[in-house]
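Kindly inspect the following:
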Amino acid sequence: MFAKSSLYNEREARTGFLFVMPALLFMVFMIGYPLIYNFQMSMSNLDVRSFKGNTSEVVGLENYITLFKDEVFVQALAQTFTFTIWNLIIQFTLGFALAIFFNKKFHLAGPIRGMIIISWMMPMSVTGLLFKNMFGTEDGVINDLLVRLGLMAQNMPIGWMIDGKFALWSVIVANCWVGIPFNMLLLTTGMTSIPEEVYESAAIDGANSFQRFWHLTVPLLKPAILSVLMLGFIYTFKVFDLVFIMTQGGPLNATEVLSTFSYKLSFTEYRFGLGATGAVILFLNLMIVGIFYLRLIRHEEVA
């Protein structure tokens, strides 16, 4: 009996490994190899001349030292965190509020929620062009709306895309327009898994709406909240297309982030080694956040 059980488990393990193998090979060749090659590039003085003549040399950490001495890189790194943190705060807060709202039973809740999700389903390039036109001109939709609401004088329009004080916020608003429905969708899914009996028991015990929300909804949604924040950080921290389409990092590097900065180093200035270094730094930041998330999940499972 024991031999049969052992043979069955071994056969089941082999079958499972065969099912996993295609995904594993895809990860190795399509993700693993480019990461290793990019890391090798970051350790060499690779540019147009050395690439064409195959004369690049290993320079160790020199590219990393060069980048951290570059004021534009330091500015791009700081703006990447600023951009990410503000997006997470706004997206999660409004997404959570919408999730609570649409979790209520009322007519047309489904259709309205579906219409809101359209902004998340649209290609990022379309969203970038849309908000570029809305913010990009002095008589654009945003300025016209502010004038109509009495929040801005008609003869004093804001140059959203040309003023360094407002350019980054323009991109933040555009990215939030995409991210809020994503947060709402995941949190709504998590809230639907909470049994109604839990809230009914709390109401019978005398808990008011805020107490039910704080002591029941938030703790029971903790895994979903962690997932939303983790995915939101990853998607926002590495955003490229939206920033590049709207501002290309301008004006005067006011919206430069790690992804656009690395792109310019590699494909505008053709300093491939430094561009790869910027990409490695971007990857390391995301990897640290991923490890932190996995530790939190493991701690929750143990607890």
